Amino acid sequence: MGDACQACLTRIPHATLIATIMCCLGVGVFCGTMYRGSALSILMFDEVFHFRLIWIEALQMIFIVGSACMAALGLMLLCLGCLTTGATRQKVYRAWRARVGGRISCAVFMIITYILTFIWIVLLGFLVITTFLFTIFWKLCSKPENIALTTCIDFTQFDFMFPSSVKQDHMKICEAYKMKLFCKDYVEKAEFMFILAMVSCILVILSLVHYLMCLSANYAHIRDHEKFQELQELQYLTNPDLHASKDRF
């Protein structure tokens, strides 16, 4: 029983499994928080500033599709890791064509993972800017004079960032209900969502880097598998006792 358990554990790609758990966890949190954060942003722009950003709604669908693709990629990399680990590698990649196919698969996945790493780094930069903006909004909401409604939160100096259809009066937040909508209902919740999305994005980037290391190691294992086989057979020919001891275990 112990030998069977040990043999099973040697077939598990622990490094790839850890990377897959990190990737799925990060992607799941990222998808949920970004969907919620973008929904709050849409409502904020619509109800407070009275304009709609259609492209944010398109981003929500992109987040869902992209998250599903990342989860599928993680599962494929886990399967590839299982095929290139322990005794499974010796059985699957025994033939020359199988080894060539395995090396090509690892190389293709390394290229895909490398590209995805840059994409997620760009997403991280976007989230850092977004989180910084919402932190500034929350600091404006936390000012005592704005809490007491003695002054307005004025965005007219940033009118170049708004669509031309937005009126100047809509860029000022003075009323109590608009202050509550902007600060409590939208900015406070959206800032928390974007902070979680930023942390999950970092987790996904770490998992992709982990995948790259695992794929590089698997590529080297497949490439050198033939050399190891020839060396092992040579040792068996020169020292038959090694083959006999191997059979005993």
From TrEMBL:
Keywords: Membrane, Transmembrane, Transmembrane helix. Pfam families: Myelin_PLP. The chain crosses the membrane at residues 12-35, 55-83, 104-137, 192-213. One of its GO terms (cellular component) is plasma membrane. The lineage of its organism: Eukaryota, Metazoa, Ecdysozoa, Arthropoda, Hexapoda. It comes from Papilio xuthus (Asian swallowtail butterfly). Coiled coil: none annotated. The keyword Transmembrane helix applies. This is Neuronal membrane glycoprotein M6-b. PANTHER family: M6, ISOFORM F, MYELIN PROTEOLIPID. One of its GO terms (biological process) is neuron projection development.
